[in-house]
Amino acid sequence: MAATMQMNKQATRQAAQQGRVAPFKATGVVRKVAQLPSSTFSGVTVPQRQFAISGARSVSRAVQSVFAVKDGAVLEGRKLRVAVIGGGPSGACAAETLAKGGVETFLLERKLDNCKPCGGAIPLCMVEEFDLPMEIIDRRVTKMKMISPSNREVDVGKTLSETEWIGMCRREVFDDYLRNRAQKLGANIVNGLFMRSEQQSSDGPFTIHYNSYEDGSKMGKPASIEVDMIIGADGANSRIAKEIDAGEYDYAIAFQERIRIPDDKMKYYENLAEMYVGDDVSPDFYGWVFPKYDHVAVGTGTVVNKTAIKQYQQATRDRSKVKTEGGKIIRVEAHPIPEHPRPKRCKGRVALVGDAAGYVTKCSGEGIYFAAKSGRMAAEAIVEGSANGTKMCGEDAIRVYLDKWDNKYWTTYKVLDILQKVFYRSNPAREAFVELCEDSYVQKMTFDSYLYKTVVPGNPLDDVKLLVRTVSSILRSNALRSVNSKSVNVSFGSKANEERVMAA
Ligand SMILES: Cc1cc2nc3c(=O)[nH]c(=O)nc-3n(C[C@H](O)[C@H](O)[C@H](O)COP(=O)(O)OP(=O)(O)OC[C@H]3O[C@@H](n4cnc5c(N)ncnc54)[C@H](O)[C@@H]3O)c2cc1C
Asked: Which of 24, 171, 430, 456 could be joined to 448 by an S-S link, Cβ 3.0–4.6 Å?
């Protein structure tokens, strides 16, 4: 970095000596703009500033020169500089890949001990693909219970082999590990709250304005850094998405309580997760009990009736009551979950990844893997487009990432979207869904696609059988719905459940 600054200083000095530097005044600061014969860049000197790097190292940037550079131009004496805003899985994985690829990387995170409200479930393939150590995975879930509106329980997981499981992690541990790894590979971790960015021209650098917490102050001190590109990894409420006018999107609100339950009850959830479906727990999602490190997370979500989220949470707690009774609530949290990708995920040299881009799958509400993967894919495209940080790059490189992403995952998002629409729309449909989950072939296909994130080719004969079963389940659920609308009695188990189902 020091070498970069030195070279930049020299370049500006040379430009000034050759009479190519013209004064330029901006926001009370005298700046100089180089009028170079080459169309590829114009240089500016910016005032001295300080920025701090995680670990209390503080770097002083004396007069620094930056240039507007066209995409593809070779960067003289410095590396491409990228700011990643947000240090969750998407940001940390983007920063790691950028730093490894030779890009000067700044990862800005407002809260380094952030404990993102999250179930913390990750697919098995993520462990190998992202080289995750086992000590950051608290539990291995090998059994799941799907629980229908009438409390019919179906055990899912019987097709799993001994080496197959779903990982459960604490996000404060998980995210911290990924950020530290990025730092070891050369990323600068900056503890600060991103406020806004400015770009003088479409080929020019960005000034990132943020509140620095590096000195431990709660209020933060205004600070800024200058970069060539931005990756917005700042989650569902992304400020970067707002800045590039990425468009609104539907979101679910997810509510979760962390409950410390007695040891004997915790034993039950040792390697078991539960999913409850029913109009009582959510009109369009599911309620869950996930085992965490030394407690369980009980939660639910909804898009269509957000104001009733507490009522759905109460119902989820009620339905799991026998198993969580005597527990102490240790944390209550709520957070939006994006429902679909943003209309726009890139503008010029700014890219969105993870929740900021809207990459959570419907039906399952899974986002950790997709966040990490999108961060990595965006960064890989930038590393490649910039020839390991030696050339300027921009929208073309970002579009490579977006095209690859859409080709790889568009079908996954669509299929899960359709499944959610078909099976979560009414209690009879949910009963049919749970019934379908009993089938070993359905379990295998579902687990394989979740654990390995690939659509595993099935057996054609079993596929046909599955199709027939699915259609008949749906028809049956439709029949139950019309019977229901004619007010004819249908039994769904207990009286209470029957009343609840019939009320749907
Ligand atoms: C209740 C709940 C349960 C969930 N359960 C699961 C689950 O079990 N499995 C699963 O796969 N997914 C789950 N998800 C989804 C998952 O949490 C997200 O998809 C995932 O966290 C997205 O990662 P990300 O890095 O894109 O964003 P985030 O994890 O949201 O990270 C964004 C980061 O940016 C930082 N930040 C935000 N604004 C700024 C700013 N202005 N300046 C600096 N830093 C900023 C934040 O502090 C945060 O660290 C759940 C979500 C919720 C709400």
From this structure: 456
